[in-house]
Design brief:
This protein has 317 residues and is of the alpha/beta class. 31% of the residues lie in helices and 15% in strands. The chain contains ten helices and eleven strands. It has helices at residues 40-46, 63-67, 87-92, 105-120, 123-131, 161-172, 193-199, 219-223, 242-251, 289-308; strands at residues 7-10, 27-30, 52-55, 74-77, 96-98, 153-157, 176-179, 202-205, 229-233, 254-259, 278-280. Strands 7-6-8-9-10-11 form a six-stranded parallel β-sheet, with helices on both faces. A five-stranded parallel β-sheet has the order 2-1-3-4-5. The protein is globular, with a radius of gyration of 22 Å. The two termini are 35 Å apart.
């Protein structure tokens, strides 16, 4: 009698072909829950006999989950970030973890530019104006003046894959782009964080969430930004002190902001809701059909290599 196939749990309702590398290698269990990931309760129940779990990065992999999964040997994140993983606990139990470091870079860069344009040209605000029937007086040339981004300075905090792609897009719009780096290189467009904050018309934060970057954007750093600057966060919510950003918007020190991520998702500071100079999206940076599929195939490929005993490409612990 042949050995039973190892069980792989996927926490989202995804097409089976997105996990094609696992055919004939594993018994794949896909948890269907509409647009959302399976509940914590369901995941804890279904993971008990699984060797591998694949998640979109939404699954909190901690002691509770690992205690519920005595057979678990691998966690695969279909995400660039790994802040949902308790790496210390995983290492203690000799459980491998992987991510997909490049899978969503293009999508996130596109969204960053979309938020920048929506903010500077007041697209979301004017869309609401039309939909609510307020547009009754014909053309109002003075009402909808926004910011032309050509010639403006975009400051990117962090200079990884996504930042470089955002830079390419911004340069095509005629912007000047400056950035910070984790290591000083002397590049002509490199700045210290304080130098960037004081120079940029628009600041985008694109750093991973670590102990060092938690609340990187706080009251002190916001005060160092140019009066009237714009702030965009497509990194992780906890990189910013959301309350401090709200206060900077209320005072007028920031003239606008756009967020794809929030400090305590899915809870959002309600003071942001009535602000017309703020654009809000529900963590959709990587949410394109093409890159979601590519990311899942990449993660499934890593799991297949693990099951075959081959060297992994994107192991984080």
């Amino acid at each position: 009698m042949s050995e039973p196939l190892p069980k792989v749990l996927f926490t989202l309702n995804a097409p089976e072909d997105h996990l094609a590398p696992l055919r004939e290698l594993a018994e794949v269990r896909i948890l269907e829950n509409g647009f959302s990931a399976a509940s914590r309760e369901v995941t804890l129940r279904e993971i008990r006999d699984c060797t591998v779990v694949i998640s979109q990065g939404e699954l909190r992999v901690d002691k509770e989950l690992l205690d519920a999964a005595p057979h678990l040997r691998m966690v695969a994140n279909v995400a660039m970030g790994i802040d949902n993983l308790d790496l210390e606990e995983l290492q203690k139990r000799n459980i491998i973890a992987t991510n997909t470091p490049a899978a969503f870079a293009e999508s996130t860069a596109d969204l960053t530019m979309g938020l920048l344009l929506a903010l500077t040209r007041r697209i979301a605000e004017s869309d609401r104006f039309v939909r609510t029937g307020e547009w009754a007086g014909g053309m109002e040339p003075l009402r909808w003046e926004g910011m032309q981004i050509g010639g403006k300075t975009l400051g990117i905090i962090g200079y990884g894959r996504i930042a470089k792609l955002v830079e390419q897009r911004a340069l095509a719009f005629g912007m000047k782009v400056i950035h910070t780096r984790s290591r000083v290189t002397g590049h002509e467009n490199e700045r210290t964080l304080d130098g960037l904050l004081g120079e940029a018309d628009i600041v985008v934060v694109l750093v991973p969430l670590t102990k060092q970057t938690t609340h990187l954007i706080n009251r002190d750093r916001l005060a160092r930004m140019k009066p009237g600057a714009l702030f965009i966060n497509v990194a992780r919510g906890k990189v910013m002190d959301e309350t401090a950003v709200v206060e900077a918007l209320q005072s007028g020190h920031l003239s606008g902001a756009a967020f794809d991520v929030f400090e305590n998702e899915p809870v959002v500071n309600e003071a942001l809701f009535p602000m017309d100079n703020v654009v809000l999206t529900p963590h959709i940076g990587g949410a394109t059909r093409e890159q979601r599929k590519a990311g899942r195939l990449e993660a499934a490929g890593e799991v297949a290599r693990f099951l075959r005993g081959e060297k992994l490409v994107s192991q984080v612990c």
